[in-house]
From TrEMBL:
Residue runs in coiled coils: none
Every AB hydrolase-1 domain range: 36-298
Protein name as catalogued: Proline iminopeptidase
Subcellular location: Cytoplasm
Alphabetic keyword roster: Aminopeptidase, Cytoplasm, Hydrolase, Protease
A single cellular component GO annotation: cytoplasm
Protease among keywords: yes
Catalytic EC class: hydrolase
Active site, UniProt feature: S112 (nucleophile), D267, H295 (proton donor)
Reaction catalysis annotation: Release of N-terminal proline from a peptide
Location, primary (coarse class): cytoplasm
One of the record's GO molecular function terms: aminopeptidase activity
Length: 315
């Protein structure tokens, strides 16, 4: 909707554990604060979000989670330890960023993995959240990870067979995300590269509903492909570093925070059931169901339009 303005400020914030997170702020420095939590995990922030927030009204903050985007050290380097890269670390980083920028309360927006992180942050710091917008709702429950790494095989049996065969035979009936993460941290670069390729083929097909052609996507870049695969398998393999029903058991803490949940009925990777259950337990949130949408937000599609409407609603 709006021209993509350049940030008026950016920086690298030391958050501990030898980690520095990249952030940028754009729009009106005195405007209403908003912050986007990117997906992935590991995807990095997308400057395209600047086009959805009126720069004359909003003070928009984008940031790269640990090891993602321009944050350091990069997860694309196999030597970078992920010991201090968990959901709680990221929640704490976001709170340190809010304090660093002198923001009292901010609107939060995050989809897919960003949804889990937004909800985890809001549960921990409800007094610092003005509103929440979530497209493609996820909560990182074990059953959600099991669905996306195994259950979806009923829709894509050909892709799933190749995906399952990408790990050693003894690991094929277990936690596939952990099995791939082990390969992605192998000392052998050929093993890492093949694992990133095999994982990404499956990952892309679940996001798009069956298309796993890397051409023109972020998966085309082997560095990006490895970074994403390593981050996603780390988080999914460890069930998001959250107790099984942590988000659901704590949604009562969001009482009084207005929210908009936006979900496509054709979202293969994140079935509508999760968004439906979140809405049932969070009375202050409205669920918008899009009959023609899946998991992907693309310029001008119904998901994009619904997000724009929600942002405008919370001006």
């Amino acid at each position: 909707m709006y021209s993509k303005v350049e940030p008026y400020a950016r920086g690298m914030l030391e958050v501990g554990d030898n980690q520095r997170i990249h952030w940028e702020a754009s729009g009106n420095p005195n405007g209403k604060p908003a912050c986007v939590f990117h997906g992935g995990p590991g995807a990095g922030s997308n400057p395209r979000w600047r086009e959805d927030f009126d720069p004359s009204h909003w003070n928009l903050v984008l940031w790269d989670q640990r090891g993602s985007g321009r944050s350091t050290p990069p997860l694309s380097d196999p030597a970078t330890s992920m010991e201090h890269n968990t959901t709680q670390h990221l929640v704490d980083d976001a709170e340190k960023l809010r304090e660093h920028l002198g923001i009292d309360k901010w609107l939060l927006l995050g989809g897919s993995w960003g949804s889990t992180l937004v909800l985890a942050y809001a549960i921990a710091h409800p007094d610092r959240v003005s509103e929440i917008i979530i497209p493609a709702v996820t909560t990182s429950r074990p059953e959600e990870h099991a669905w996306i790494t195994r259950g979806l095989g009923m829709f894509f049996p050909d892709y799933f067979e190749a995906f399952q065969n990408g790990v050693p035979e003894e690991d094929r009936d277990g936690n596939l995300a952990l099995a791939y993460n082990k390969l992605l941290n192998s000392p052998d670069p050929r093993v890492r590269e093949k694992a990133a390729w095999d994982w990404s083929k499956w990952d892309l097909s679940t996001i798009t509903g069956g298309d796993n052609d890397f051409t023109g996507t972020r998966y085309e870049d082997p560095v990006e492909r490895y970074r994403l695969a390593r981050a996603v398998t780390h988080y999914w393999g460890n069930e998001g570093f959250l107790p099984p029903d942590y988000i659901f058991d704590n949604l009562h803490r969001l009482k009084g925070i207005p929210g908009v949940l936006i979900h496509g009925r054709n979202d293969f990777g994140g079935p509508l059931q999760t968004a439906w259950e979140v809405a049932k337990r969070w009375p202050d949130a409205e669920l918008v169901i899009l009959n023609d949408a899946g998991h992907v937000i693309a310029e001008g599609n119904s998901m994009d339009k619904a997000i724009t409407a929600a942002i405008h609603r919370f001006r």
